[in-house]
Structure formats: C-alpha cells, structure tokens
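Section 5.1 Outputs to date
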Amino acid sequence: MPDRTAPYARDPARDPAPPLAGGVARRHLLGAALAAALSRAGLARGDGAPVRIGWLTAQRAASLTPYIAALRDGLAAEGLEEGRNLAIAFRYGDDDLGRVPALAGELAAAKVAALLVQGAATPITAALRLPVPLVYVVSGDPVAAGLAESYARPGGGMTGVTLMAAEFNRKRLDLLREMIPGLRHVAIIGNPEHPGEQLERAVSLDAGSRLGLRIDYHATGTPEDLAAALARLAAAPPQALSVFADGFTLQNRQRIIEAAAGLRIPVISGWPSFAESGAVCTYGPRIAASYRRLASYIARILKGARPGDLPVERPDVFELVINLKAAQALGLTVPTAMLALADRIIE
C-alpha cells in the first residue's frame, strides 16, 4: 500500500491504466494467447465457443451498473471480450439473500469456468462448496469472515478483493478536524456483524485518543438498533458523525444522513455513495478500481492458477469526495487545500 503523508494525499497509481499499446491488434494478440492458454488448461470449449463465467450478487442490477462497467474494462484489458472469447452469465437476487443458493446452483449447473460473487452473497455461496473456482469482492475482512486463511494465501477454492482498509478511519478523523475547528466529540455508527468491524472500531478509538477526541460508538446491525442510535444522537448531539461503510449502513444511508442534517451534524464515511446522498465528505477506496482488479483473477484462473494460491487484494487506490453543498448547508468551510486535493466535488 502506498505511503501517504496526508489523509487525503493523491496517489499517482490511482489513475486508470493507460490503453494497451497497439489498440485492436494488441487485444487480438492477447485474445489469441489467452485462447491457447485456456485450451491447455482444459477450460476452453471444444467447439471454439466463448468461455463462460458467472456473476452472482444478492443486489439489484441497477445498483452495480458502474462497477460492472469497470469489470468489463478490466476483462477487456486482459484479452477477455464478451461476444468474442467470453460470455458472462449474470444472476441478481434483487435484494433477496434467500435467492442466492438457487442462483448459485444455476450457475454451477451451467458449468461456468469461474464464478464472481459480490458482497453478502459471498459467504452463502462459499458455504455451498460448489465445484467452481470462486472470486469475490467483499466490503469486510475476508479472514475474519472465514473466507480466507490469510491474505497472502487464502487457501481453498476462492480468493478475491476486499474494500476494507481499517486505517481509512484514522484518515477520516483527520479530515473532520480539518473541517471542524475545535472538534472534540465524534460519534460512530457501525454494524457489529460486519467482518472486520472490530478492527475499524479499534483503529478509530486509538486515533481518537491520539487526537484528543471523545469517540462514542453506536452498534447498529438492525433497523431497531439504528432507530435507538439516532435517538441517542438527538439526545446528546456530537460535533460530527463517522459511518462505517457496509451493506447495512449503505442501505440506510439516507435515513442516517437526513437525521444528522436535522441535528446539524456533518457526516463522513468511506464510499462515494454517502457523499452523493448528502454526507459532507467520503474518503476510501476507489470502488470501480477494485472491481476492475477482479479481471486479473479471472484471467489467471482461466490460465490454470489455483484461487487459493492468489493473494487477496486490499484497496490501494483511494479517492476523496467532498459534498460542498452539504458542507455549506451546515455552515462548514472546507479548507482550500482539501478542495484542491479532492478527486470530486459535489456542488
């Protein structure tokens, strides 16, 4: 992971990789090389038809559209192009986790060469022990979730990408101090059932202690927990609210942000969706870049690599998104230096 001297410093590696040299000719060469590798690995169709992989999520298709585009870009860069040498079978659970086992079974029966699994569908699919190499993208810690033995050697028949980096929480507290003069009291909302949440909490408490901040933690794993947490915030408002990003808080982000706005409490989190919904700032992984990285796993597995031998990747491309309109509505002045370093400003 690159060394950062400021919580919102730019990383030259964050920009997308440049186009492959040679354009179309280069892609065809990669495709030919990959086809030969697939044939040697016994994964290519004998009739020359495209290799088929599966995509499985419990979410709705619309919620992942930009990330599927990033995945397709990554696959094309690896020489895997739909309609030429690749076919992707998509399965969406439409926000119903109960559909995941049946959808996973459909993809396994279709004899996909590899299966990409997103978010909360991952542990459910992993528990089925399907005879298919599995590549996942999860928001939590895959080791804590039991999906990997270690980051370096996950073992078993799966590997993938995590969006979690607990140190982001330290950076977010630094950002809040930059925006809020005299900051002393920050509340945190987090889902205790989210794998890795305990590490995020520990990092936040340690950072708060070093910065002289009082940190109040509110465990919110259910709608009832969230209602109780928001009631406590209303009774004793903090100066700012940091929200750990996971599936539960993402689904309830509008409720959290609107409640905080009513109390004139600025909100910070990790994923751009929070800033787009009214949080004053987000600092965290560039999610599209992580989805793009999934393609490299697929390419290596199709060439014969074992998933359990491929290290799980943490985020190494970060972005700062500032909602200037939300900040101004709360009477906050965002420092010029922060605005200059922001990847995106919402006005």
